[in-house]
Structures are given as structure tokens and as C-alpha cells.
Write a structure and sequence with these properties.
The chain is of the alpha/beta class. The chain is built from 16 helices and 13 strands.
Length: about 425
């Protein structure tokens, strides 16, 4: 019997309300019998703990910065003493991927120190392979730690932020260094192909986000008659929520009965609240903050459609969740979204930033019959079941991980048998 893998997972902030896809991936790998140890650079804000599931994941996660500056500093010293040659290679690597400027050097020094701590944990816990989500600071830490601990590493690139300022984040070097890189949509992989050499392209793999049984096999419920539309996501500029409020203003001026519920939080919340107050929309727009997965499901089912008017995206899992629950979606022609949302079939797409077309799509949802909404929802549910099954897609990732871990184990076995080779 083949011994299960011992894997490490790293993100910048693990245990957020919006980390549904990553938590499902970790859970699925554990269900397959593998050990998955989760690491995070920092702990999310307290308002993200909206369920026991998130609380439990936070409890079992190693938060690197919570170790404290003294222990982190000592781990760097210990790395120099225990593995001087690896440390020298890691320092060289950290310098090579450092962005220009004195401030960037300071940040890179911090990433190196964090990596020494992570590397020691990798050794102590017997982790065979590290996998990182999002190609920013945590990917830098993961890549350096892999050198320090002499293990392989890989990463999942989500977008859109992974492709903003790729030179600063040394995206091409990370794509070359990783054993493989996973993308959640064809669009994301195309951006990586743009930023790296053709010889690296075979290592760029598609593993789509997936949903678990709570969404895929949820009891089908008919769309409501109430003219209610839902937004779920981080309240940040790229999500286009302020444009969504402007669309509500436009529709209210046309005397269209419509209500909007917002789930999420973030830096744009105060601007959104001010816009709602300025346009006297308090009775039509409700902000709920972060909610548990169960509450999100309830709110999706209580809505005619989900709306996500993003200016930049990867491929948001909440679109899959809404479609799986037989609700059409409204979104934009951005990144991987058109790979899932088919205009007039399972939802509507508007050009990003287009107020008129966004408002028109919302009007069409509110005006549609229950039968029309149900037909779009049915198509969406069938497509999500085919493309975004978490168990099936995690098996794809597992195969990629085995291809690396299996090769490493075989090399170690051959070295043990022939130490002079």
C-alpha cells in the first residue's frame, strides 16, 4: 500500500470567510487520506470567523507572524548554522526575485526570515511537498522555504491580482521554479503563458474550482417571485459594487421594484454605505457583512439571481454556487467568467464598467418569469456539475501532486540503495 502524502499548504491569510475553495480543496485532500498541514503568513480579521468550520481551520493553522520577532529571528540564525549552503542559495534566490528599491529589500528580508521558520516546520513535520495559493508574498516565502528545506513546491494562481505588476512579484521566476502551477481558468493560464517561456508551458495546468455536495446535490427550489438580487464578495474596488449601487439608483428612478442584498466586507464598505445614504436607498439595499456558508446558501435561494459586476477577476466560486443552486447570474466579460456564464442561457454578461448594460441585465432578471429563471438555473446547475465538482477536480490536483512526490520518493529510495551513485 502506498503511503499517503504529507503536504503543506500556505497562503497569505488562511481561514477567511471567502476562502471557501481553498478550504474545500484541503478537506478533499484530507478525505483522500493525505496529511495536509496549513500555514498562513497572518491571521484574518476576527469578523471572518462566521462558522465552526472556519474557526476549526484557524485553530489547526500555523500563523507565521504570530510566532513573534524573536523566534523568527532565531530561526534565521539556526538556518545559517544548520544548512549554510542551502541558506546561501536561498539568500541568492531572495535577492534575485526582489523588486527594485530599498523598501522592497526590507520586505524581501522579512519574507526570507519567514521562510526560515516555515522551512524548519517543514522538516519537523516531515512535509514532502509545499503548495501555495496566490502568487504574491506567500509564494515568495514558499519558494524560498522550499530551497531551505530541500522540498518541492507548487502553486495555484487565481487572478486577478496575481497578474498585476508581475515583475514586482517575480511571476516568471516563480512559474519556472515551481514543480507545476495550477490555474482555475483558461484565461489565467493564458496570462501565465504570456509572462513565461514556452518551455515552462507544460507545467501550467488547469484545475478548476469545485463545489462540494452541499451545493451540487442541494434540493432544487423554485426562484422566488420577490424582485431580489444578491451580491456576495469582498467589498473592494475591483468588485464594482459602487457601480452596482449606481445601477440601483437608475432602476429606482425607472420605478422598477428591486431589492439588493450585499454579503461581504472590505475597504469599499464605507463608500458603499455613503452612496446608499446619499441616494436614499436604505430601504432597497441591505448590507449583511460576512456570513457563514449556510447563510450564503439561504440568501442565494431567497434571490432571483446573483450579481457580480467585477472590473477584474479570476473565476469567482460564488458564481458556481449560485448556478449550482439553480439561480442565474449577472456578471461581466472579465477573465474566466465567460468560460462559465453563457449570456441568455444561464445568466447575463455586461461589459465591465457599463452602467446601462448592468442595469439592463438586472431589469431583465426582475422582469423574467419564474419559468425563464428556472430554465437558466437548470442549465447553470448542469454545467457546474460537469465542470466544477470538488471531488473530481481535487483528484486532478492529487494526480499532479503524486507526479512530484512519487518522483521524489523514488529518487530518495534509489539514493538510499546506492549511496555511492
Amino acid at each position: 500500500m502506498v503511503e499517503p502524502m504529507r503536504l503543506g499548504y500556505l497562503t497569505s491569510q488562511y481561514g477567511r470567510a471567502s476562502d471557501t475553495f481553498i478550504r474545500q480543496e484541503v478537506a478533499q485532500l484530507r478525505n483522500l487520506g493525505h496529511t495536509v498541514v496549513t500555514f498562513s503568513i497572518r491571521r484574518p480579521e476576527a469578523d471572518h470567523v462566521v462558522s465552526d468550520e472556519i474557526h476549526n481551520e484557524q485553530v489547526r493553522t500555523h500563523y507565521i507572524l504570530e510566532t513573534g520577532p524573536i523566534k523568527l529571528g532565531l530561526s534565521a540564525v539556526a538556518s545559517i548554522v544548520r544548512h549554510p549552503f542551502r541558506t546561501a542559495r536561498a539568500v541568492t534566490l531572495a535577492y534575485e526575485i526582489c523588486a527594485p528599491g530599498f523598501k522592497a529589500i526590507l520586505w524581501q528580508a522579512l519574507y526570507f526570515i519567514e521562510a526560515t521558520y516555515l522551512a524548519r516546520k517543514i522538516e519537523l513535520l516531515g512535509i514532502e511537498h509545499m503548495h501555495n495559493h496566490i502568487a504574491h508574498n506567500s509564494a515568495s516565502v514558499c519558494m524560498i522555504a522550499a530551497v531551505l528545506s530541500d522540498v518541492t513546491w507548487s502553486m495555484t494562481v487565481h487572478g486577478p491580482h496575481d497578474f498585476v505588476d508581475p515583475e514586482r512579484w517575480a511571476l516568471s521566476q516563480k512559474l519556472e521554479s515551481a514543480a507545476f502551477s495550477v490555474f482555475i481558468a483558461e484565461f489565467g493560464r493564458s496570462q501565465a503563458m504570456w509572462h513565461t517561456r514556452t518551455s515552462v508551458w507544460p507545467k501550467l495546468q488547469i484545475v478548476r474550482c469545485g463545489l462540494d455536495e452541499t451545493f451540487l446535490h442541494h434540493e432544487q427550489m423554485p426562484p422566488p417571485h420577490a424582485p431580489r438580487i444578491l451580491f456576495v464578495g469582498r467589498l473592494s474596488p475591483e468588485k464594482g459594487v459602487l457601480l452596482l449601487i449606481d445601477a440601483m439608483v437608475k432602476l429606482k428612478r425607472d420605478n422598477l421594484p428591486i431589492d439588493l442584498v450585499l454579503i461581504g466586507d472590505g475597504p469599499s464598505r464605507s463608500d458603499i454605505e455613503q452612496s446608499v445614504a446619499r441616494h436614499s436607498l436604505a430601504g432597497a439595499v441591505t448590507l449583511l457583512g460576512w456570513c457563514s456558508n449556510e447563510r450564503v446558501r439561504e440568501e442565494i435561494l431567497a434571490s432571483r439571481a446573483l450579481v457580480l459586476p467585477s472590473f477584474a477577476e479570476g473565476l469567482p466560486i460564488v458564481l458556481m454556487e449560485a448556478l449550482a443552486l439553480h439561480r442565474p447570474v449577472i456578471s461581466t466579460y472579465v477573465a474566466g467568467i465567460p468560460e462559465l456564464v453563457k449570456p441568455g442561457v444561464n445568466g447575463f454578461l455586461a461589459p465591465p464598467g457599463s452602467l446601462d448594460e448592468l442595469a439592463d441585465a438586472m431589469r431583465r432578471i426582475v422582469s423574467a418569469s419564474i419559468e425563464e429563471l428556472a430554465a437558466m438555473g437548470q442549465h447553470g446547475a448542469e454545467l457546474v456539475a460537469k465542470m466544477h465538482n470538488s471531488a473530481t477536480n481535487t483528484r486532478q490536483l492529487e494526480a499532479l501532486l503524486w507526479s512530484v512526490v512519487g518522483t521524489t520518493r523514488e529518487a530518495s529510495f534509489n539514493t538510499a540503495r546506492n549511496p555511492s551513485a
